[in-house]
Design a protein that fits this description.
22 strands; about 550 residues; 13 helices; alpha+beta; about 25% helix
Length: about 550
């Protein structure tokens, strides 16, 4: 018996050494450990939806994620879901919201608040839908756990903190991506690749056509694209006459921070500007879970002088977008003429290097932290607003490894592919038919402000905020997920898809990204099985697969 155990021990040692050698790599042998049918680049909600669909369809998949935390905005603070018409959200997206519902049906979920105390309604987005067993409003850590559970259950490999080498990391052959290499030196090979990032880095590095900024009105025959001076759809504009100068009324005193001295452009003209970014902040007024707002390094109250002047004119709507999520927390979003949207400070983000993007993200973080500190502490803030603000802080039990600050900035728009079919406002408004529908959207065509400029009368104003109803749900074309065939034949892009600026303002919602991620993965499976380019996937077959999986395509 002793000799037998010794021999087994020897075998285990051999296996262990062999395994370690394999994981360390061997330059003399080909490395097959980073090969899969489908390689997904990104860690967003679309990435996880796509990976789950691929795995359940019997394909091997590797998620190569620059993010450490999975889920993008869905787990990064955007818990007050922009749903639109929830009846058109099916498939894995609906499964996600069903899993959230299951979580909040446990007593353990309600740590800081009783379930019956949490309101079930909020600005058109009911939190809990018992009839359909879904929940649409949730805490960030709950969403992240749902994504992690889905990955674990399907045994999906996720390589985190792996950043694409955007200069030399995409190997092409005969119009196909052969492999991608990350900055750490890992090379991943597959049959089909997917770009599920908010930035479209893989798409761009593969040489696929794309656009950054707003198209002029004439490009696609749209009413709501291009510069929109004089259009005031929401309440995110200056209702009072506010001077943009350091000394009010004196142009010689210089411009206040966050104001552009450039001409905004002719109405309806195109430009290379993009809608503003912000962090969706998870805040709480529950004392046991509250962390006081930190004062950022280099805090400068002059950055918020415009807001002080807005308050002086009697503005009282500071707390309107403290949208309630469970456990006495908020998903706090931009609201009003001067808020969390850092207007005009992100124009170079889509094309910027990783280092420059980090600078932009840090500037946005410091801007928002300074904004919170300003409202809670500056003597120019009205006393009633300041007293209420001092009851709030960051949530101690969220984003624990990032100082309770969201790990994902809200990249509302970056690159947008110019693919096989371009979605425009005409399809969303049902003025033009949408070929090969593979999912649906329904949210308002929503662009946040793009620039803050000086009007001819010398007062400051915001521009670019648009909110136009789509008059009901609309379909999204499979052609908007695939590049032009001459650009690339084995890439799918469900996030930075082929869309005009204003159409993307509706499509860009997180439930839709989950829908498109699943539909793209289903198409990838068919392309592999039938050994064809993604552009040649048979639509009738794809539609049948999607309907069988609960996707709502029409």
């Amino acid at each position: 018996m002793k000799r037998k155990l010794s021999y087994l021990g020897y075998l285990l040692l051999v296996i262990l050494v062999s395994s370690l050698s394999s994981s360390c790599g061997n330059s003399d042998k080909p490395d097959n450990s980073n090969v899969a049918d489908i390689i997904i680049y990104g860690g967003t909600s679309a990435a996880i939806s796509a990976a789950v669909e691929a795995k359940r369809s019997g394909k091997s998949v590797i998620v190569v994620s620059p993010d450490i935390h999975l889920g993008g905005l869905s787990s990064g603070g955007l818990g007050f879901t922009d749903t639109g018409d929830k009846s058109v959200i099916g498939g894995l997206a609906r499964e996600f919201y069903h899993r959230v519902w299951k979580h909040y049906n446990t007593e353990e979920a309600w740590m800081w608040q009783k379930k019956e105390e949490y309101g079930n309604k909020g600005q058109g987005t009911p939190a809990m839908d018992g009839e359909n067993r879904t929940m649409w409003i949730f805490e960030p850590h709950v969403a992240e756990k749902v994504f992690e559970d889905m990955v674990a259950e399907e045994q999906i490999r996720v390589d985190r903190d792996e950043w694409l080498d955007r200069e030399n990391g995409v190997q092409m052959k005969d119009g196909n991506i052969v492999s991608i290499t990350t900055l750490s030196g890992k090379t991943y090979s597959g049959k089909i690749f997917m770009d599920t990032t908010y930035e479209g880095d893989l798409m761009a590095a593969a040489g696929v056509s794309y656009h950054v900024g707003r198209e002029g009105k004439e490009v696609y025959g749209e009413e709501w694209n291009g510069v929109q001076t004089g259009v005031l759809h929401h309440k995110h504009w200056f209702e009072s006459d506010i001077s943009p100068y350091v000394v009010p009324g004196d142009p010689n005193s210089g411009l206040l921070p966050k104001v552009s001295g450039e001409h905004p452009g002719e109405k309806y003209s195109g430009d290379d500007k993009i809608q503003a970014y912000c962090f969706r902040m998870c805040m709480t007024n529950h004392p046991e879970n509250r962390v006081p707002f930190p004062k950022p390094d280099g805090y400068d109250p002059m950055q918020y002088e415009l807001l002080a002047r807005v308050f002086e004119h009697g503005w009282k709507d500071w707390f309107v977008k403290f949208d309630p999520i469970p456990n006495h927390k908020t998903d706090t979003n931009n609201h009003g003429p001067f808020s969390s949207d850092n207007i005009g400070m992100n124009y170079d983000y889509p094309e910027a290097s990783y280092e420059r993007r980090k600078e932009i993200i840090n500037e946005h973080e410091n801007y928002q932290k300074g904004l919170l500190w300003f409202v809670a502490n500056d003597p120019r803030v009205p006393e009633d607003i300041q007293m209420e603000m001092q009851k709030w802080g960051l949530s101690k039990d969220e984003f624990k490894d990032n100082g309770n600050w969201p790990h994902q900035i809200y990249v509302r728009e970056a690159r947008r592919m110019i693919g096989d079919f371009v979605m425009t406002e005409n399809e969303l408004l049902k003025k033009s038919p949408t070929p090969k529908p593979i999912g649906m959207g329904s949210y308002t065509m929503d662009s946040h402000n793009v620039q803050r400029y000086i009007k001819p009368d010398g007062f400051v104003q915001n521009e670019g905020d648009i909110g136009v109803s789509t008059n009901g749900p609309y379909t999204i074309s499979y052609g908007s997920l695939v590049p032009k065939k001459e650009d690339c034949k084995n890439l799918l892009v469900p996030v930075c898809l082929s869309s005009s600026h204003i159409a993307f303002g509706s499509i860009r919602m997180e439930p839709v990204f989950m829908i498109l991620g699943q539909s793209a993965a289903a198409a990838a499976v068919l392309a592999i099985d039938d050994e064809m380019a993604v552009q040649d996937v048979g639509y009738d077959k794809l539609k049948g697969v999607l309907l069988g999986k609960g996707q709502i395509v029409e």
